Amino acid sequence: MLIFDCMNLYDLFVKPYESYDSLQIMLEASGAIFGILSVFFSIKKNIWVYPTGIISTLIYVYLLFNAGLLGDCMINVYYTVMSIYGWILWAKNSEDHVHVEVTWATQKEWIYAALLFILSLALVTFIYYYKPYIDNQFSMEGTSLGLYHLDWANWMDVFTTSIFLVGMWLMAKQRIDNWIFWIIGDIICIPMMIFKGLGITSVQYLVFTIMAILGYVNWKKSFKEKKVQ
Fold it and tell me: Which residues cross the membrane (predicted)?
């Protein structure tokens, strides 16, 4: 039984990387490390959440572009743009240019969040519809447009991308509610990344889940302490 489990772990976390070169493995590991650092800084309400997060997403932009997965690459470009937006907002709202104060989202912001989620679903679905064309170096030769090529992981990717974008927007607004979206999205991504053969990234999302729970608790505690003052 132990040998069987070890073989499963080998197939999930080692075998997919046998065809990768050392640079690819090093970059994916670096992307995961910077991603974890980004979440750590966000827990601390530290503006360094954005520089480290941008490095992580840009690494994945490079990896996905080289892999020919231009549709997924464009989604990570979208993440990068949202991170720059958040960085600008935090810089404006920080008294010491490093830390920010947090609060709960208003009812109006929840309506905006719902609209952003729907728009993100439409945008990501649109990208996936044209993904065969994009991945074929923007050529229609031998390419059929549509969503026929999507498996369950791709559909989950559409869903989680929209969840994360709402989370990023709420984080940019310094809203405690953002962590709820990160927790949900991270949990979904763990099996999804294993299915995609990205073992290192699946472990990253497990760490993200734990850190997001800590972030929620920490921001909530910080808000209560601020109210007492």
Answer: 22-40, 47-63, 69-90, 110-130, 152-172, 179-196, 202-219
Q: List, in order, residues 6 or more apart from 94 with CB less than 8 Å away.
A: 47, 100
The pLDDT assigned to 156 comes to 84
Query: What phi and psi, each to the nearest 5 degrees, are found at residue 99?
Result: -105, 155
pLDDT of 4 reads: 40
Q: Are the C-beta atoms of 224 and 195 separated by less than 8 Å? A: no
CB 205 within 8 A of CB 35: no
Token digits for 5?
């489990």
pTM of the model: 0.81
What are the extents of the domains in the chain? 9-100, 101-228
pLDDT at 170: 94
Residue type, 187: I
3-state secondary structure of 46: strand
Tokens for 203, please give them: 């472990």
Q: What is the pLDDT of residues 84-97, one digit of tens each?
A: 998 998 888 877 76
Residues of the chain with pLDDT under 70: 1-17, 67-72, 97-98, 228-229
Please give the full DSSP string across 139-168, using - where no structure is assigned: --TT---SSTT--HHHHHHHHHHHHHHHHH
Q: Rounded to whole angstroms, how far apart are CA atoms 167 and 162?
A: 9
Largest CA distance in the chain: 65
**C-beta separation of 45 from 38 below 8 A:** no
Which element (helix H / strand E) includes 128? helix 107-129
